[in-house]
């Protein structure tokens, strides 16, 4: 019988693909039953808190959605469809992230596939945030005219680009990853963030110029601050960069990144709630959102991103097989030299 709760190992005992910068220990065994990885949620290892932070975040968002449902008709009122579809995108983001960190250690193919689903979730959250911000957070003075009708289609394209660019960077580069890989990741995420944050940035600018506040703005400013902090921890590998091996289980940058993202979505929903309550009258004076511009955009992004995941999973298979073929050739040459 396979032991389901094995002690963790140091990085020397796992393939290079599973290594993380400045993390020396706490790695799980590869090629174990799926049950082993699900049960590892209750074991201390270097991915444990990465899974739990976003699992807890997902449950908190679901709880917030249930709270909203007591005040708003989330599915029957078209004016609440952007809120519902946006929350669905957040839940899927956290589900994909939590499962990716929980299951990626099973094999090289599982590693690639899990994180491609993670990237798909990030892209989906991007379009979900665009739907939320352009329906509830935009002041009348932020008039973009004819461009308004293009916001959702462009958001879908950018959401797919996040999944596409991150997947390309995953299969194109080997560990230790070069800095250009983070450019692929941060560039695509930065592109969609620039679009989704425009209505809020406009409000912040007006606040600076006129000193006029509204109830939702402090929450939105906080979500922007948390996003900047998330980018810092994602790109810097701080604090483990300065103390290799000291933050393997608790406190390394990816855990801090996860907590920052959790706070981004939490403050985002707090701000949107205040915006809906404060501007409810003017909200219902506008044309109601359509199914295609809310749930339709979410479903379309999911569908296209799934295609991207399937395509790049096949690329990963070839990438893995080529690597194994090169290893066999190297071993064969080494044996010949010894003989």
Automatic annotation (TrEMBL):
A Pfam family that the UniProt record links to this protein: HlyIII
Binding, Zn(2+): 101, 254, 258
Principal location: membrane
A molecular function GO annotation: metal ion binding
Entry keywords, A to Z: Membrane, Metal-binding, Transmembrane, Transmembrane helix, Zinc
InterPro entries in alphabetical order: AdipoR/HlyIII-related
Membrane topology listed for this record: Multi-pass membrane protein
Cellular component terms (Gene Ontology): membrane
Subcellular location: Membrane
Transmembrane domains' residue ranges: 79-97, 109-134, 146-171, 183-204, 293-312
UniProt family annotation: Belongs to the ADIPOR family.
Name of this chain's protein: Membrane progestin receptor beta-like
Biological source species: Octopus vulgaris (Common octopus)
Source organism phylogeny: Eukaryota, Metazoa, Spiralia, Lophotrochozoa, Mollusca
